[in-house]
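Hello,

Our lab assistant flagged a job as stuck in the queue for most of the afternoon. It eventually completed. Since we weren't sure the result was trustworthy after the delay, we are filing this so someone can double-check. Below is the sequence as submitted and the structure that was eventually returned. Let us know if re-running is recommended.
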Amino acid sequence: MENKAQPFAARRERGMDSFRRSVRRGARRTKRGSGPLGAVMKGVLVAASITIIAVAIFALLLNWWNASDGAISAINQVVKFVSILAGVTAAMNAGASGGAMRGACVGVLYMAVGIVVCCLLMGQSPQLTAYLADLGMGLAAGGLFGMILTAGRKGG
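-- returned structure --
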């Protein structure tokens, strides 16, 4: 009887091919998304980017438009809500559960980053009550947008 055992080199090559397939498969999984934390960070970056663009456009418009302080505050709130909505939308994965939690995390982190940047740029110490209100607004808006987006994806 012939011994049909493969030599050592052939078995080693087959093992290397299997290893290479596993590495490629793992790399594809990593590219798809790095989990909930990566999605939240992506959402915060998207929200911050939208805010920077909107504030720059708004600053240019203020050169030609003499707006009152009330109008400026209202537009700033709208910019925050739109940015949180864009960030939560970016953080949501298709069919992902926990939309309210993910949205709330995006909202709170976005507002916290905004507070820190504002304090650094203005050279002010944080006013606790005003900033707690902003954090609460980010938490509520992000959670609400996350719930709405999750319900919208499940229903339609």
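-- support follow-up --
The delay was a queue issue, not a problem with the job. The result is valid. Residues 34-155 form one domain. The chain has a mean pLDDT of 81.
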